Amino acid sequence: MRLDELLEELEARINAARGTRDRVHNLLEAVVSVGRELDLSQALRRIVEAAALLVDARYGALGVIGPDGRTLSQFLTVGLSEEQIAKIGPLPAGHGILGELIRDPRPLRLTELGAHAASYGIPAHHPPMRTFLGVPIRVRDEVFGNLYLTDKRGGLDFDADDESVIATLSVAAGVAIDNARLYEASQRQQRWLRANAEITNSLLSGSPRPAVLELIARRAQEITDAALADVSVSVAGTDDLVVELAVGGDGDTRRGLVVPAVGTLSGAAYKAGALVTTVDLAEDDRYAAGPRRFDGLGPAVAVPLGTVAEDTRGVLLLARLHGEPAFTEGELEPLRVFAGQAALALELAERRHDAEQLALLEDRDRIARDLHDLAIQRLFATGMTLQSAARFVQHEGAAERVTRAVADLDETIKIIRSTIFGLRAREADMGPSLRARVARAVGEAATTLGFPPRLSMEGLLDTDVPAQIAEHVMASLTEMLSNAARHAHATRVEVSLQATSDEVVLTVTDNGRGIPADGRRSGLSNLDERARSVGGTLRIEGTDESGSRLVWRAPLTAGLVLTDGP
Question: What digits encode the pLDDT tens for the residues 397-430?
Fold first, then answer.
């Protein structure tokens, strides 16, 4: 009998030693498996799976502590199906027992989960849980998150050996997470560098500004895994911003939106000239101004495209879906550098554009000088010669043709002089020409429309159109383009300005939804009153496709005798 007892005791010890050996072997395998993974999300998944397997837990979870240090920003589970997770509802935020480890990051073992003072029940459709083991995960000196394990199989309690195994795994997990973070940061840094080089090359190769802005937004969206990326710029003379570019999500509805600078995330970054973040963009009361457009979005960041507030060229807004991780400092710093370098590239492109414009103006001066000194003088001499020769022409028809040729030469000289006047017009001394003002207004309208309108101009606009009529033309053009941006929802706008011998005609055509019969007509009334104040008319027409055509005309002599309109 004594021998049998000794043999049983020996067998039990052998089994215990074998079990310890197997557990150590499994722990080493888990450590190697976790340390091999360089992708952070995959590493976290492997850690929680290995933890549940090592202590034979039915359910396991890993909670990542958010930037505020009080709540969980991520929660990965093992043992629950997708259907169960959907029925339970929102993932835990770090209250109750889960929050106990956040407040006091030390291992915690419980025989009865519901008996702890910090426990306040479980959600509906949540499976019952009794035993509990929680261990913090540290990455260097930072508590990264916690491992939560419940319901050891066989109805047993978690013991000191289980705690020791999970504590050992948490140390290896901290090293693996740190390595994955460093690898992720280096990969992200390389992607930022490639994006900066791509943007710089695009600018220096002459790509238009809208194309470069879209490249900036798309690369930032891809690198940060954001659901959407918007670029907003200021509206001159107001405290508002307009969404010039919208990528991701329902971009067509956001493009062209005018939002206040006060009470919006983009506006806060624009005014401060510094990066601004939120963990829940859709529900953050600080940034709820303007039209509602961020449903379903969570973590977001707005970064100015500029180095100082006074030199901000716009704001880049990036937002992730609700429930996704918040932007970390490791992500924000490269984004801040990227935005600064993108702004610098835009500034260099603007300087190059200014230099090209200066060269163009100098070339225009040369052309104007040559036209005046060479072409006009020769035409004038030819006209004088023909006029003198007409007296010696006996044939009546021939004499009439010579006289007509002289008149044509005189008209040609007037046209060339008008061209010279337009080439030499300067804002500093005589104000911008009507052609230049119209071109600038149409170019600026691309920001609010989301696309550049087509423009055509014809006639002696800078010489034959009086200043008073020109002011009415500009005011009417601005009103028409504004109406097209706010109400028409068009994808194509065409602007035509023509000066004939007796009138100026402004036509704006769009392919939008047309002008409803019962819609607001205050803007159209203003256009009509402005036309009538100078003896002109406003005509509203339909087009072959959906859309509208506004034709505003005024006589060129009216501006000399009539008073200013509204």
Answer: 787 888 888 787 777 777 776 666 665 554 434 4
DSSP code per residue over 472-535: HHHHHHHHHHHHIIIII--S-EEEEEEE-SSEEEEEEEE-SS---TTS--HHHHHHHHHHHHTT
Pairing of strands 57-65, 228-234: unpaired
The owner of tokens 């047309």 is 514
Identity of the amino acid at 473: V
**Which amino acid would we find at residue 357?**
Q
* Residue 125 three-state SS: coil
Under the banding of pLDDT at 50, 70 and 90, the label for residue 23 is low
Q: Which of 260, 268, 295, 262 is nearest to 281 (CA)?
A: 295
Q: How far is the CA of 311 from the CAs of 271, 349, 430, 445, in angstroms?
A: 11, 15, 29, 22
| H-helix segments, 64-120 | 82-88, 96-103
For Cα atoms 277, 281, 285, give the angle at the middle one, nearest 5 degrees.
100
The H-assigned helical ranges of 55-115 are 82-88, 96-103
**Residue for token digits 């933890």?**
51
Tell me the whole-structure pTM to 2 decimals: 0.53
User: Which of 63, 77, 48 is closest to 105 using CA atoms?
Assistant: 63
Compute the distance between CA of residue 520 and CA of residue 523 in angstroms, rounded to an integer. 8
Q: Give 462-488 pLDDT, tens digit per residue.
A: 778 888 898 899 889 988 888 887 776
b vs e for 549-559, b when ≥16 Cβ sit within 10 Å of the residue's Cβ?
ebbbbbbbebb
CA count, 13 A, side-chain hemisphere, 390: 17
- DSSP run (H or E) holding 200: helix 160-204
CA nearest neighbour of 289 among 262, 312, 249: 262
- H helix or E strand, kind and range, residue 326: none
Query: How far is Cα 94 from Cα 65, in angstroms, rounded to an integer?
Result: 8
Report which DSSP code applies to 370.
Answer: H
Rounded CA-CA distance 253/290 in Å is 14
Cα–Cα nearest to 469, from 527, 555, 390: 555
Produce one character per residue of 254-289: b if its CB has 16 or more CB atoms within 10 Å, e if not.
bbbbbbebeebbbbbbbbeeebbbbbebbeeeebee
CA 413 to CA 388: how far, in whole Å?
Answer: 18
Cβ–Cβ < 8 Å for 237, 224: no
Q: Which amino acid is at 479?
A: E
Beta bridge partners of 549: 509, 541
